[in-house]
C-alpha cells in the first residue's frame, strides 16, 4: 500500500475513532462476553432481578450444551441500580471496557432511552425484553417485548367488548415517565376512534416509588359512579405492591371496576395477598399458567436453577413474560451468531432478521425486519394463588407496529430498519 493510502487510512480511522464509530474488536477465540444490564437494587429491582436470573440460567444452559460456535458465553453482570443516567454509564463500560458482543437489559423506557445514544454511537447491540410504547426503531436494538398493538390496544379493545365487561369510562393510571404517557396518548386516540369522549377518560400519574394510593383509589371509585369503568394501569416497579394492596383495602373488586395492568405479572404479585384481587386483569404475551411442553420445560428449568443457585425466594419463585422474552432474545442471538459465523455486530444484525424460536408461550416467534418480534397477545385474570387464567388470546403471533397509527405524523414512516433485507417469508407476512 502506498504511503499516501496509509495516511488516508490512518486519518479515516482517527476520525471514526473520534466519532465513536469504530467497532470494538471481539476476540475470535475464547469465551464470548455478553452484558447483563438490569437493576438489582432500587425501585425496579422487584421486576428486573428475575431477568438477570433468567439470563444467567439461559447462558449456563447454552454453555452446558456446547456454547456458541464451540465457545462459552461469559456474562458480565452490572447493577445500574434503577438510576437512569447510571444505565448509560454502565452500558458504555460494557461496550468499551468489557468489550461485550451484545447486551441483554433494561426494563423501563427511560432506561432504554438513556442507553440508546451509547449503543448507536458505539454500534453496540441491545436486546430489550419488555413491553414498551413504540415510537422507536433503532438498528442497534432488538425489541423482544411487545409494541402497543401487541398488548395495550388489544387489552382495551377487550375491556370495551361485551366479553370484557363493556366499559364506557377509562381511568388511565401510570408511573410518570415516557412509557405510560406515550401509551396513554395512543390509547386516548384509540378510545376516541371508538366513540369514547374526553369526559370519560381520566389520566393520573405518580412518581417512581410512590406508595400512597389511598386517595387515587378513592377517586377511581368516584369516577366509576359515572358509568361502567375500567382502570388501565401502567404503574411500574415496586409501586404496584401498595396500589394492589389499596385496591384490596377499599374493596374495589374486578366485578365493579376491573383493572388491566401492562407491567404486573406473576413476579410483582408474589408478595401480595391476591385473594381480594381475583378477576383483575393483565395483558401479556406469555403467562406462567400456559399449558404445553415448552412451558413445562421452561418452568422446570427455572425452578431447578433457583434451587441449585440457592436464589432468594426458593420454591415461591415464578416465571413471567419479560423472563420469556429474555430467554427468547438470548437464543435468537445465539442462532444469529452461528448463522453469521461471527460476533461482529453488523453481521449478527443482518442474521437476526427472520430468526425463529419455539417459545414457552407455545407459539413460534419470528424476528421481523423492524427489529420487533411477531408475538401472540394474551389477557389473563388474577387467581387467588397469584397466577393467571388466560381468558382471551390471539390464534397467531401478531406483527408489531413500532409506529402507532394512532399517533399523528406516523403515516409513511419506514416499517423496516434501514438496509434490512427481508427473507421472502417475512415479505409475505408483513400484512399480518
From TrEMBL:
Coiled-coil segments: none
Residues annotated as transmembrane: none
Keyword annotations: Signal
The organism's place on the tree of life at top rank: Bacteria
Family matches, as InterPro entries: ABC_urea-bd_UrtA (IPR017777), Peripla_BP_I (IPR028082), TAT_signal (IPR006311)
Signal peptide: 1-27
Keyword 4Fe-4S: no
Official protein name in the record: Urea ABC transporter substrate-binding protein
Source species: Paraburkholderia dinghuensis
